[in-house]
Design a protein that fits this description.
The chain has 422 residues and is of the alpha/beta class. It is built from 18 helices and seven strands. Strands 1-3-2-4-5-6-7 form a seven-stranded mixed beta sheet, with helices on both faces. Helix 3 links the parallel strand 4 (78-83) and strand 5 (101-107). It is globular and about 70 Å long. The chain starts with a strand and ends with a helix.
Length: 422
């Protein structure tokens, strides 16, 4: 992992995590003040800012790489502030490695970033058009209109920062955000947490920030007026002041004064109102898991997960919403056996299964199902050129009329899926 230190070597370590598409330079304006008290550690995401282009498709993977780097440097305990994807890494640290974390700040963060479809769609656009469309639209997502107009140099810096990112690493980071969802686990975050958001953030705004504050037991909210998503860049002084105050006053000690041992954060126990019926506040151990029946597990749960990943939440939600007593058994059959049994088998990757599926649909004349499987193929990593090659192959083996119909459908789908949204 590409990183840098600033500040005195004997000071406690404070880590600053970047947002998707940015580099450690997004924190430049905070560093002079923060280094008066802390040794500041900044890192770049894979393929960002010239960092090695080893894609990481899960937030847990990014977190593991960060901890491995810190272990090699002898850094065991630290404070952490992260923006957006960097904030997701902070939540992951608090949930999975609480003994390492002294204090936490989450900036423009969320327990779930939009929908999986939104980020997988962004991956399709990058795979087809490169990063230029994403780069050109970044200022309007990151900054308020007034700031972008008044600061053309910073706006151009933002565009170039995205444009020079490795596309494969950007797509993998989109996948990491698509699969990140810790809404049910926020109550287990046991470190003091500052949740900071720009009042004008349209990406992960005040509503998402309030969800974090409501779920994390020891959290407080700070809304920065006149700032959008990349609030450390747009309102650097306000963010710096909030970070200094938070990490100066909410830093859990790392060692017991009496024993010298590391003090792990205590489990958070919710208080029960006096009028509530008597019941245990917390359990010593979780209840034993129910015994699974002997034989093969029901593949339905795996099937619905794979079906959503391949076809998208919007499509699956629409199909399930239209299901009634008459069609319900059929939808269960499709989910359980087509998606839970066949699509979930390890023998072929999803790109290959998409190629086979497109060919079979053309051969069978099933044009009515071709469009959503073309979208699935793009989501599974096929490029438009590769889809074209599959359809050319069907012209030879399935017939020109069938391929002609397929090309008409594919032309429309590719145009819709790969055109950047204004």
């Amino acid at each position: 992992m590409q990183y840098r230190f600033d500040g005195p070597e004997d000071a406690p370590v404070l880590i600053l995590g970047p947002s998707l598409g940015t580099t450690w330079h997004m924190w430049d304006r905070q560093v002079p003040e923060l280094t008066k008290q802390w040794r500041v550690f900044r890192f770049d995401l894979p393929g960002h800012g010239g960092a090695p282009a080893y894609p990481a498709g899960a937030v847990a993977d990014l977190t593991t790489r960060l901890l491995t780097t810190l272990d090699g440097l002898g850094v065991q305990r630290f404070g952490y502030a992260g923006c957006a994807l960097g904030g997701a890494v902070g939540i992951e640290l608090a949930l999975r490695h609480p003994e390492r974390l002294a204090s936490l700040a989450l900036i423009a963060a969320s327990p779930r970033f939009g929908t999986a479809d939104e980020f997988r769609q962004r991956g399709v656009i990058v795979r087809t058009n490169g990063l230029d469309p994403i780069a050109r639209s970044s200022p309007e997502r990151w900054f308020t209109g007034g700031f972008a107009a008044a600061q053309p140099a910073i706006t151009e810096w933002a565009v170039q920062m995205v444009r020079t990112t490795d596309p494969g690493c950007y797509i993998a980071a989109c996948e990491a955000l698509a699969s990140f969802d810790v809404r049910a686990e926020l109550g287990s975050v046991g470190v003091p947490t500052l949740v900071l958001v720009g009042s004008e953030d349209q990406v992960t705004g005040p509503a998402e920030a309030r969800t974090l504050v409501a779920g994390i037991p020891d959290a407080r909210l700070a809304v920065v007026p006149g700032a959008s998503h990349l609030v450390p860049v747009e309102q650097p002084a306000a963010v710096t002041d909030l970070l200094v105050r938070h990490f100066s006053t909410a830093w859990q000690p790392g060692f017991e004064t009496a024993t010298g041992h590391i003090a792990l954060p205590a489990a958070v126990v919710k208080q029960v109102p006096a009028a509530a019926p008597s019941q245990p506040v917390a359990e010593i151990a979780p209840p034993a898991a129910p015994q699974q029946p002997q034989g093969r597990p029901d593949p339905y749960d795996a099937g619905i997960k794979v079906r959503r990943e391949v076809l998208g939440d919007a499509h699956v939600d629409r199909v399930l919403a239209e299901t009634d007593d008459f069609s319900g058994d059929f939808q269960e059959l499709v989910t359980r056996y087509a998606w839970g049994e066949v699509w979930d088998r390890p023998g072929l990757d999803r790109r290959t299964r998409s190629c086979v599926t497109l060919t079979a649909l053309v051969a069978g004349g099933h044009v009515e199902e071709l469009a959503f499987h073309l979208r699935a193929a793009l989501r599974n990593g096929l490029t438009p050129d590769e889809i074209k090659e599959v359809l050319l192959q069907t012209a030879v083996y399935c017939g020109v009329p069938a391929a002609n119909r397929a090309f008409r459908v594919a032309q429309q789908v590719v145009r819709e899926e790969t055109t950047p949204q204004e």
